[in-house]
Amino acid sequence: MLDAITKYLNTRGTPGEAGSMLWATIYILIITIGISLAVIAMNWLERKILAHMQIRLGPMRVGPHGLLQPFADALKLLIKEDIIPENADKLVFWSAPVVVTMTAFTTFLVVPFGREHAVTDMNIGILFMLGISSLGVLGIIMAGWSSNSHYPLMGSLRSSAQMVSYEVAMGLAIVCAVLMTSLQTGTGTLSMIGIVQAQAQQHTWFIFKFFPLGFLAFAIFAIAMVAETNRAPFDLPEAESELVAGFHTEYSGFRWSLFFLAEYAAMLAVSSIAVTLWLGGWMRPFPHWLHGPIWDLAFSFLPALTLLVLCELCLVGAARMPKIPQMKIQTIGLGLFGLLLGFAGLVLLLPGVRERVQDIYWFTVKIAFFMYLYIWYRGTFPRYRFDQLMKVGWKVLLPTGLGVLIATAIWGLLPQISSAILGVLP
Amino acid sequence: MSLSPLIRKILLVDLIKGLKVTFDYQKPSEAITEQYPLERPVVYERYRGLPRLKVDPEKGNSMCIVCNLCALACPEQLIVVKGERNPVTKRKEPVSWSYDLSRCMFCGLCAEACSTDALELTQDFEIAFYTREGMVLDQAALETGHEPKRYEK
Amino acid sequence: MSDFENDYRHAKSGQSGPGVVDYLDLDTKDQTYLDANELVLNMGPQHPSTHGVLRVILKLDGEKVLGTECIIGYLHRGVEKIAENRTYAMFNPYVDRMDYVAAVSNGLGYCEAVEKLLNTEAPPRAQYIRVILTELCRIASHQVWLGTHALDIGALTPLFYCFRDREEILRIFEKYCGARLTTHAFRIGGCIYETYDGFEQDCLKFCDAFLPKLDEYEELLTTNRIWVRRTKGVGILKPEDCIALGVTGPVLRAAGVKWDLRKAQPYECYSKFDFEVPTGLNGDTYDRYLVRIEEMRQSVRIIRQAVDGLPQGPIMAKIPKVLKPPVGEVYTSIEAPKGELGYFIVSDGSLQPYRLRVRPPSFVNLQALDKMVRGLLVADVVAVIGTLDIVLGEVDR
Questions:
Q1: Does C159 touch chain A if contact means CB atoms closer than 8 Å?
Q2: Fewest 10 Å CB contacts: which of A24, A195, B99, C388?
């Protein structure tokens, strides 16, 4: 037993490559807990950041600066009454949130948090992710149909139509990036780790490759992923101020929280696709130009530095709280939380931990950037009407995606084309 | 179409301008929320809040002379004053006062009509009561003002 | 039987009367009230987007709207009947509660009407103070409109920015007359409150701080392609239809008709100020948006001129304490933020008016809803209700 553990730890590879079921299970558990924690953090961050963009404060009472608000919300949802509409199809009603959540979580099997930090490295990784997230659309249709009410039905049909249309654009953008992986080695790869390694070999992130084509493909994917996850400005099916209140109208309590969890997990999943394909995955910025042990050392301090900065913010916030007896518990709580973060930051300074954490840290930072973009869009843009939404998906993104794909292919084959032409010329 | 609007359309300039506006407003110093029970709002002098019957500070008796002008001016007719003439000071003094706060719309006509400036609307806005009957104020309640009762289980 | 089914029965039997549903053309050939793919949808009184308790019944063909009917009256409080039992001065506080978003304008209209009945006028200083407060109120009302309209279309943040500006205006109101919303600022014959110390500085400070913020809202919305697509070409109302329906206010001006009561029939001291009346070209939602934004700018211009030219003098005209206007009737109207707000008072020489009728702008503008939404999608109905800028307190009184 013990030497099985040490044997795995000495190999450099994902549990999938090492063929170890035990470690794969452990990684799956860690990822599931991690996603749940990320969703909880996202809930708090979304409320606070959206509130600050709207010049208000957001939750402040439940826990210091509202830090315990997501837990309070989760607890409330768990203890709510479980209402099932009378004429609903009970089996489908029960299984719809299960389908949506399970597909959202299953996509994380191939997401590479680091060179050896993925559950498994399928050689069809990206195709797997795209396929499984398409299965999630089925769950939405099930939810709308089983509610036995025509508002959820209309909402779910609209939602699923939107998701399916934007998956086409997403697919085209993904194919552009996959094309770029074949530039140096001659063979492309669909595996997520392979795509990041191709970027490492070509010394550029694909977003900067063949400028502006890589950037255009990234932009198409960035817009399509917002529409895929039904977020603003494409959130008409779930907007409250329209007539149709969305496919999850009839769901309450825990079932609704599963939909919520699935939505945020899907956001994380498509963000991780974007990060892996265009933003270099787990690579730190400028690995090729700023190489060398000194630069590596400098960059390796960043995770600890981030946590220490957060710790300092917490302690400053605790110092600035009003000094009245009602706020004593909150001040102490915030101070303890800050000290916890500081302790974690100090742990990250240890040399052994420093290298292992690097990849995960950069991946998380890039995903956090996308989450911030999601919240920023929600705070800024009005909503598209449904027919305009479909027009954008089919008449703008699809032709642009096709054009970028063809242009990328031609640009990538330019050396061969030009040498063929030069060879033919006398 | 000339070049510049087309470039702006492709580069999503209008969307980015909007994003910049919301980004700039994010600093916590821009937040204008007042956290109510901890920070009280600033109420200005002329605010028409809870009514109050003034008491003459030197003599200690009420300044109201039961002229009934407030009761006549009130649109909702919720003031009922009864008084009797005091033989010593030759002034009318109020015997019973009744001000129904539940129907009051805080228009201030009663305070405007008062001939001795005895009735005024103060700046107190925290005037929640636990019972509907408690909202009918008598003379003692009008003179001393309203202490918010802390909730006891 | 619900009243909705009742309405159907009346329509079928050809009777006319209250509740007959004429607009929806429910009598189909085979007497089934609806063709196969048509749907009748009820945007009920409780709805996040109907700006109050408005009930709109939509007849839809899939997503397209074929006809609507508005059912109002959920907020009817009998204000006009109350007026018959109150003296003229006593009725003043009730007037604020009709268009509760822009309370000061209502007070202005009422005081104007009674002063016309009494054949007096407020002294110049009072007129200037009234104009300043009314224009501030116009900005406040348009801010509520902008915030809620943007919220209906999906932009969540302008609501909070607009209410922050409105907070400044309400603070000025509170400092001046003691209440933020139901201001009861004016009295018959003038104003009772003298301006407080720092009134002019507060107003000018507000004007200076407000214009850059208005530019920010324009940056957030006016050129935003999503906003333009949601509002351009939506809810077009042609000028002939506007005039035929009696629509006034920014809706009329956005259709192209340059009619503003402040210029056409000047009241108070508006003739002394130099300002422009913005008009639109197409009469769609985008034009109404632009017209109201420009109106806010012109209001700032008027406030600046009024504050600079504020004369000294009395603020209350000499009118008897007990008001018994001569027998007669009067109709006065002012340009409220939402349109032409009119008061028709019939006096029989006694302390209380014999009849007081209010012509609310929102009530008349709401009639244009049916014409504007035919052929639009369901999501646009919400935008159109928002762009008409209705306040149910006014519609129902």
A1: yes
A2: A24
Nearest in space to A390 (alpha carbons), one of A220, A152, A158, A141 = A158
Name all chains with 3 or more CB-CB pairs below 8 Å to chain A. Answer: B, C
Instruction: Write the CA distances from A261 to A29, A82, A225, A230, integer angstroms.
Output: 16, 17, 17, 14
Instruction: State the CB neighbour count (10 A cutoff) for residue C186.
Output: 28
- Residues in a beta bridge with B136: B100
Under an 8 Å CB criterion, which residues of A touch C? 50, 53-56, 232-233, 235-236, 239-243, 378-388
Q: Which residues of A301-328 are buried (b: 16+ CB within 10 A; e: fewer)?
A: ebbbebbbebbeebbebbeebeeeeeee
Task: Give chain B's mean pLDDT.
Answer: 83
Q: Which pLDDT value is given to residue C28?
A: 44
- What is the rounded average pLDDT of the residues C297-304? 93
Examine the pLDDT at C231 and tell me if it is beyond 80: yes
Tell which residue, A206, A199, A179, has the closest CA to residue A190: A179
pLDDT of amino acid A120: 83
Instruction: Say if residues C382 and A240 touch (Cβ distance below 8 Å).
Output: no
The structural domains of chain C, ordered by start, are 3-71 (no CATH), 79-396 (1.10.645.10)
The set of residues, in sequence order, having a beta carbon less than 8 Å from that of A265 and lying 6+ positions away, is: A35, A39, A101, A104, A105, A107, A108
Note the pLDDT tens digit of each residue in A335-370: 999 999 999 888 888 887 787 888 889 999 999 999
| ipTM of predicted complex | 0.86
H or E segment to which residue C215 belongs? helix C199-221
| C-alpha–C-alpha distance, residues A159 and A234, integer Å | 10
Mean pLDDT of chain C: 86
- The string of DSSP letters for A170-186 reads HHHHHHHHHHHHHHHHS
Q: What is the pTM of this model?
A: 0.87
CA distances from B118 to B48, B71, B140, C93 (A): 15, 13, 14, 22
Find chain C residues with C-beta within 8 A of A242's C-beta: 49, 378-379, 382
Contact A186, A381 (CB under 8 A): no
Task: Pick C157's closest partner by Cβ from A235, A239, A380.
Answer: A380
Write out pLDDT tens, residues C179-224: 898 888 899 988 988 888 889 999 999 999 999 999 989 888 988 8
Q: Which of B21, A176, B29 is nearest to C157 (CA)?
A: B21
Comparing CB atoms, the residue among C90, C174, C179 nearest residue B109 is: C90
| Beta bridge mates, B92 | B85
Domains of chain B: 51-144 (3.30.70.3270)
User: In this complex, do A386 and C377 lie within 8 Å of one another by their Cβ atoms?
Assistant: yes
Distance, in Å, from the CA atom of A272 to the CA atom of A166, rounded to the nearest integer, reads: 17
Region C53-79: mean pLDDT is 86
CA A367, CA A74: separation in Å to the nearest integer? Answer: 23
Torsion-angle region of residue B122: left (phi > 0), alpha (psi -120 to 50) or beta? beta
Domain map (residue ranges) of chain A: 2-301+349-412
| Paired tokens of A52 | 């600050």
Give how far the C-alpha of residue C169 lies from the chain's centroid of Cα atoms, to the nearest Å: 18
pLDDT of A91 higher than 70: yes
